């Protein structure tokens, strides 16, 4: 299909494969089973849902896969940012960055949960216990806490960078393959935020991919 822009077909192809893979895993885990949609008398679970009910949103498979993966990814990152923000082992600049990242991530989670509610979908962490790319798991944080002091900053920055970079890839995939204008718009905002955050991280000692 011809569009007004000239995409990087190699990147688009890789992202499309990534999104298709994530969606396939999601379907195996049960997104297509009966009860995946909320009943009219069963509100979606959300601690941050706005007081007003959002307008209805039609969520396609890729949209749902994106939201159902990004919510736990952001939640796991928020727990890590909270740890970094108070860790004496983390350099002050990294603690400051973690505090700023926490603010943007909380706002995003609120939007994502609102979209799930608007799509009449019950929130469910189907990736709990999975070692998903970009997920800052408890085991990885436990390993970091055991790292030598001289390696802490670099290893912590690696966890942050991997999370941010994976979020960019998933957000690109949603924009290319998603069916909901609202979710695609959210993904575009996440991509912009993550690229800016990656630039901030790279400016810190040990924050670049090269270490």
Give structural attributes.
about 210 residues, mainly alpha, Ferritin, 6 helices, about 0% strand
CATH superfamily of one domain: Ferritin, core subunit, four-helix bundle
CA(first)-CA(last) distance:
41 Å
CATH topology of one domain: Ferritin
Q: How many DSSP H or I helices?
A: 6
Q: Name the CATH architecture of one domain.
A: Up-down Bundle
Number of strands: 0
> What's the main sheet like?
none
Based on secondary structure, the structural category is mainly alpha
Strand content: under 5%
Whole-angstrom Rg: 18 Å
The whole-number mean of residue pLDDT values reads 78
Helix content: 55-70%
- Low-confidence stretches are 1-52
Task: Tell me what you see in this structure.
With 211 residues, this protein is mainly alpha-helical. The chain has a domain at 73-211: Ferritin, core subunit, four-helix bundle (Ferritin, Up-down Bundle). Helix content is 64%, strand content 0%. The protein has six helices and no strands. It has helices spanning 9-31, 61-86, 92-118, 138-145, 149-177, 181-202. The longest helix has 29 residues, at 149-177.
